[in-house]
Every structure is written in structure tokens, then in C-alpha cells.
């Protein structure tokens, strides 16, 4: 739903303000600071945390129209809504502003105009939906749908509805479209402005005498708003007689009608259409080949690696050592020093790089420099050996086997996902769910991130895409209590696997870490999975270590819980990814359960030794 709508002058006078929830930011202030002061008028939308802030200007009247809404809800055609807001305000309300001696004396209430904009917007969406239904392919008809039908098992059972295009969701339709509605008399009467030409025709057909009357009124108001000699800065607020403004325009949050609230909350209306869009985003990709992650790499791949950069360099360095000479420590040292340096350039921590070099050294001493094939093999095997030692720490975790054991005992297997904001906790939780479903387990989600606006809806979306039930208690209850109730529900419904989503938090925020530790201690999940981003390198290790320490420090001495495993997300977005992967495990002893290699549910892969060796030698 729309969280905020505001209309203000470029000199900072608020003409209308309506907030539908308690916002964590002063979005108006943020917009002014970030964009308007810097005269970034070309941009018309940006993201602040979860809020999509969208605005448009009426240059002629020095007005700014802005709306904000949760990005996660994917509201459609919000650019249309802002256009309507602007058109209605300019046509019917702007003229009612009373100004005397450069002081605003009276601001009209825009509540009705706002409701009218919402209504028009809804009508427009309805027409659009009908139009899409008649022109769009069903999901099954699309290429992805066909692939999915062939490849996926058990996820896409129900007959899907119609889909729209992702592009339609929240991208403003561009400058020209927005500008079209500036001061366009009567343009808001036309709902069908998907066909802009119709609107134009309407515009042109307006009676010219009426047009000139409006033009006159406009001119008059423009004069009224003519700036005083001293130019005010965009945020400088002129003196305003606040009383009327206060009563009528400002602070009306909470007073909107329930009918309006329903219209604003489109989440149920658009479920059908949107869920197919979401499915397109997350499902599919089963047959996709992801570089470095195929379990069996072909001989060709192997030869490619051997021919390329890093590996061939080391080997050719060894080759330069003369003939039948038996290699000793002295021969190897300069080459290994170089190798170490290159590993460190690939983001591998120094200690790890040293360990890898030591391992090669140990295996190469006393071999003959001449035997090149042997050299190739030895370097590679030494690396494999050393890397598998690092990647296979104390506890090797097989979640499928563990879940099976729980199922045999008649208990749900419970995993809690933790980590800082935006690392991919919810997305990877959904990927793990997909994996479990494919293996025939019944799954349930617990929506325990009830801190970030829209987080519950995000999990519900995944739930709908995967046909997995979601246990949620909205945004009020304590996460630990929600988890507790979810576990009871999972037990009662004999669900095999319960996946608990939690809110992101910074590792140094003690109250929030305490909250997390309470959730963990009270509910004792089978597995605590830390989600870290592959791209943050050393910071990821720091986050992981601090999360782990906080859990240990904040749990009671007789029930200490630690992080059990790591999922490294966004592996697909970095080149020197293996450095972070090795460091995290090396420094903490926690195994890497999976790597997230994209946004689809199938983009979850096991990090095997071969992948790392390839990446290091590439
Ligand atoms: N490229 C890529 N994007 C990812 C991956 N995992 C998550 N994301 C994206 O990262 C963003 C944040 O993910 P989300 O699950 O909401 O993070 P959370 O705040 O930790 O729950 C979303 O846009 C995801 O699609 C991944 O493995 N690769
Ligand atoms: Mg999340």
C-alpha cells in the first residue's frame, strides 16, 4: 500500500501530507536533501531501504508531488497514481490556495482529492488487468513455464493464471509521460491513459473558453507565487498561518476511511496476477549450467584451466628449473612466494595462502623438475588436499539426512536463518525450502522477521510461489514467541521441516542480538545457519565471528548455542569469491552448507573442492 503522499512547494511549504503508517524515516526531508537541493530533477524515483520514493515536479507552479511505498509490495502503475494526484491537485485545489503579501493564508484540504486520485488509479488498474488478461500468455505458455513443466517436480501444481511483465511493476514510465499530465486540464478524467493519444485528444477537445479561464486563473496564481526579491533556498520555509493547514491538510494520518484503506492495500487484489510474476522470477533454471559448479567437470574444462593464467604460470616457472634436477626447498621458495602473493591478490587470507603453499611444497620436494605431467598433477592434488582440509571442518552437515532422521522421530527439523540486513536470508531460506520440497519433505515457513516493513509479505510471496504454508503473526509479537507458536503449529500439523526467517541486524547491536539469542535459546532449532555475502570478504568473517560470539555470550551457560553452518550468498556477483569462502571457514571452523549463485530457487549449490581449486588456478 501507499505509505505516504505529500505535496509541497519547492520553497518547503507542505500543502498536503498523509502518512498511513509510522515511517522509520522522514522521507520528505530525505527527498529534499538527496535530490531537490542537488537539483536532481531528472530522477523520479529512488529506493531508501525498503521504501520506493517517487516524485514529480510541476515546474510552472513550483510544486513537488511525492509518494512512498514499500518496494516489496510491487505496487503497479504508481507513476500513474502520482500523475493523477498531480492533475487533480493542479486542476481543482491549487487555485484555492490563498496568498497575501507572499504569505500563504489558507491551504485547501486535499483529502477528497486524494481519495479521488486513489479511486481513479484503482479504475485504471482494473482496466489494465483486464487488458493484460486478454493479451498475455499464461505462465505455462511461456518458455520458462514449458521448461519448468519438464524439469521441476511438484512445485507448480496448480493451474497458473495470467502474467504481466516485470517492467510494468514500478518503473516510472519516464519523463514524457509524467510531463504529459502537468497542468493537463481534464487529463485525470481519462482512465484509459494506457492509450495516451486518447488523453491528448481529450485535452485538445476541451472548450477553448474554459481553457482560457483556467489559463487566467493559473497566471493569477503564478503571480501570487512569484518569489520575493530574495530568492529562498528550496528548503527555506516561508511564514504560513498554520491553523487551517494543520486542521485540514497536515497530520491527517489515520483519518482515512476504511474503504480507502482497502483500496490502498492492493495486496489481495493483485495476488493472482503478481504471484505469476514472482514465479517467473524465482522458478526455473534447473538446466542452467553455472560455471564452476558442475559436480563433474569435463576433461576439456580441466585442460582449459591448465592452459590458462595462474596454473600455467606456476607450472612454467617450475619447468624453467633445469632438467633432471631434484627439486629442493631453495628451488621452490621463490616460485611459492609468487604463488602466495597471487593467492592473496585473489582475496585469500595470508595464513590460508601460506598453508596452501606449504602443502604444495611438501609434495613437490624431491620430485624431478623435468616430469611436467607429474608436476601438474602434484600441484593440483596438493591444492585439493589443502583446500578440502580447510573446507571440511569439524562438523559435516547433510541437512537432508538430518531432516530424514527428524522425520523418523516424528519431529519437525527446524532451521533458523540469521545474518545482517539484505544479505539474502529470506531468499536463501526459500531456496532451501525448494530443495527440501524436491526431496519430498513437507515444509513450513515461520515469518519471524517482523521488524522490516514488508518482510512478512516477502515470505508469504515465497510461500505462494512454492506452495508452502507460512506461519505469521504480523508485525506485533515478539519474534521468539512467533517462532515458538510456529514450532507448535508445525508439530501439530506434522510438518517435516520448519524454516524460520529472522530480521537482519548488525552484529554490534546488542539489544537486537539479545533478541536473536532469545529466539534461539527459547526454541532450540536443529540448525542455525548464518547467511553471509561472498562479496564482503573479510567483513563477512567479522560479521560471522561477532554473531557467533553474541550467541555464545548472550545464551545461558547451560544452553549455549552457536552458528552451525554458513550459506554464502551472491556468489555469482563476485570474481574473487573463493577468498571469502575460504577465510570464513578457516577462521571460524564453520562449514559452508551452500552457496547462493543467483536469485532463483535453483541457484543454490554445494561448494566443492574442485570449484575452489579451479577458481584459484584460473
Ligand atoms: N545475485 C544474487 N542475488 C541474491 C542472492 N541471494 C539473495 N539475493 C538478492 O539479495 C536481495 C536481498 O535478499 P533478501 O533475501 O531479501 O535479504 P534479507 O534481508 O537477508 O532477507 C534480493 O534482491 C535477493 O534477490 C544470490 O545468491 N545471488
Ligand atoms: Mg528477509
TrEMBL record:
Domain AAA+ ATPase span(s) in chain numbering: 411-551
Biased segments, Basic and acidic residues type: 135-150, 195-205, 213-249
Identification of the protein by name: Signal recognition particle receptor subunit alpha
Organism of this sequence: Tetrahymena thermophila (strain SB210)
SMART domains registered for this protein in UniProt: AAA, SRP54, SRP54_N
InterPro entries in UniProt: AAA+_ATPase (IPR003593), Longin-like_dom_sf (IPR011012), P-loop_NTPase (IPR027417), Sig_recog_particle_rcpt_asu_N (IPR007222), Signal_recog_particl_SRP54_hlx (IPR013822), SRP/SRP_N (IPR036225), SRP54_GTPase_dom (IPR000897), SRP54_N_sf (IPR042101)
Biased composition (Polar residues): 255-269
Topology versus the membrane: Peripheral membrane protein
Residues of the SRP54-type proteins GTP-binding domain: 412-618
Cellular component GO terms, alphabetical: signal recognition particle receptor complex
A GO molecular-function descriptor: GTP binding
Biased composition (Low complexity): 179-190
Annotated family: Belongs to the GTP-binding SRP family.
Residue ranges, annotated region (Disordered): 135-275
Compartments reported by the entry: Endoplasmic reticulum membrane
Amino acid at each position: 500500500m501507499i505509505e505516504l503522499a505529500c505535496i509541497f512547494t519547492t520553497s518547503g511549504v507542505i500543502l498536503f501530507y498523509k502518512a498511513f503508517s509510522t515511517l522509520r524515516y522522514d522521507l520528505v526531508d530525505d527527498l529534499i536533501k538527496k535530490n531537490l537541493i542537488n537539483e536532481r530533477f531528472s530522477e523520479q524515483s529512488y529506493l531508501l531501504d525498503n521504501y520506493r520514493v517517487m516524485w514529480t515536479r510541476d515546474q510552472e507552479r513550483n510544486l513537488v508531488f511525492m509518494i512512498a511505498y514499500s518496494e516489496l509490495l510491487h505496487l503497479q502503475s504508481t507513476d500513474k497514481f502520482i500523475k493523477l494526484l498531480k492533475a487533480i491537485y493542479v486542476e481543482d485545489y491549487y487555485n484555492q490556495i490563498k496568498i497575501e503579501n507572499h504569505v500563504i493564508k489558507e491551504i485547501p484540504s486535499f483529502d477528497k482529492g486524494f481519495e479521488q486520485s486513489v479511486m481513479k488509479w484503482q479504475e485504471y488498474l482494473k482496466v489494465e488487468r483486464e487488458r493484460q488478461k486478454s493479451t498475455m500468455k499464461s505462465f505455462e505458455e511461456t518458455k520458462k513455464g514449458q521448461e519448468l513443466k519438464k524439469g521441476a517436480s511438484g512445485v507448480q501444481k496448480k493451474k497458473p493464471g495470467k502474467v504481466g511483465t516485470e517492467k510494468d511493476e514500478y518503473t516510472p514510465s519516464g519523463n514524457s509521460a509524467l510531463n504529459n499530465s502537468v497542468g493537463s486540464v481534464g487529463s485525470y478524467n481519462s482512465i484509459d491513459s494506457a492509450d495516451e493519444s486518447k488523453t491528448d485528444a481529450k485535452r485538445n477537445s476541451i472548450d477553448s473558453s474554459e481553457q482560457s479561464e483556467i489559463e487566467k486563473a493559473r497566471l493569477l496564481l503564478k503571480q501570487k507565487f512569484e518569489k520575493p526579491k530574495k530568492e529562498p533556498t528550496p528548503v527555506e520555509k516561508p511564514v504560513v498561518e498554520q491553523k487551517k493547514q494543520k486542521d485540514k491538510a497536515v497530520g491527517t494520518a489515520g483519518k482515512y476511511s476504511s474503504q480507502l484503506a482497502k483500496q490502498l492495500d492492493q495486496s489481495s487484489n493483485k495476488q493472482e496476477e503478481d504471484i505469476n510474476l514472482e514465479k517467473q522470477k524465482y522458478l526455473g533454471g534447473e538446466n542452467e549450467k553455472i560455471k564452476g559448479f558442475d559436480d563433474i567437470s569435463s576433461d576439456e574444462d580441466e585442460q582449459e584451466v591448465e592452459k590458462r593464467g595462474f596454473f600455467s604460470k606456476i607450472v612454467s616457472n617450475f619447468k624453467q628449473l633445469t632438467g633432471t634436477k631434484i627439486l629442493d626447498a631453495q628451488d621452490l621458495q621463490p616460485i611459492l612466494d609468487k604463488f602466495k602473493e597471487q593467492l592473496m591478490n585473489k582475496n585469500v587470507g595470508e595464513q590460508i595462502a601460506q598453508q596452501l603453499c606449504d602443502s604444495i611444497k611438501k609434495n613437490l620436494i624431491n620430485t624431478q623438475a623435468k616430469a611436467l605431467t607429474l608436476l601438474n598433477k602434484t600441484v593440483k592434488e596438493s591444492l585439493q588436499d589443502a583446500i578440502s582440509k580447510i573446507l571440511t571442518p569439524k562438523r559435516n552437515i547433510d541437512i537432508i539426512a538430518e531432516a530424514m532422521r527428524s522425520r523418523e522421530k516424528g519431529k519437525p527439523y527446524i532451521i533458523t536463518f540469521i545474518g545482517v540486513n539484505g544479505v539474502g536470508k529470506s531468499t536463501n531460506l526459500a531456496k532451501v525450502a525448494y530443495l527440501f520440497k524436491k526431496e519430498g519433505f513437507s515444509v513450513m515457513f515461520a515469518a519471524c522477521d517482523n521488524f522490516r516493513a514488508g518482510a512478512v509479505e516477502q515470505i508469504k510471496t515465497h510461500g505462494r510461489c512454492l506452495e508452502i504454508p507460512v506461519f505469521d503473526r504480523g508485525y506485533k509479537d515478539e519474534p521468539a514467541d512467533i517462532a515458538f507458536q510456529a514450532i507448535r503449529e508445525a508439530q501439530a500439523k506434522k510438518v517435516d521441516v520448519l524454516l524460520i526467517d529472522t530480521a537482519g541486524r548488525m552484529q554490534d547491536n546488542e539489544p537486537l542480538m539479545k533478541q536473536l539469542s532469545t529466539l534461539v535459546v527459547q526454541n532450540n532449532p536443529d540448525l542455525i545457519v548464518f547467511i553471509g555475502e561472498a562479496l564482503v570478504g573479510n567483513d563477512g568473517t567479522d560479521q560471522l565471528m561477532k554473531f557467533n560470539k553474541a550467541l555464545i555470550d548472550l545464551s545461558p551457560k547451560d544452553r549455549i548455542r552457536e552458528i552451525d553452518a554458513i550459506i554464502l550468498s551472491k556468489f555469482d556477483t563476485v570474481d574473487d569469491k573463493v577468498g571469502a569462502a575460504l577465510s570464513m571457514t578457516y577462521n571460524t571452523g564453520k562449514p559452508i552448507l551452500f552457496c547462493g549463485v543467483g536469485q532463483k530457487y535453483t541457484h543454490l549449490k554445494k561448494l566443492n573442492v574442485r570449484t575452489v581449486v579451479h577458481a584459484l588456478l584460473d
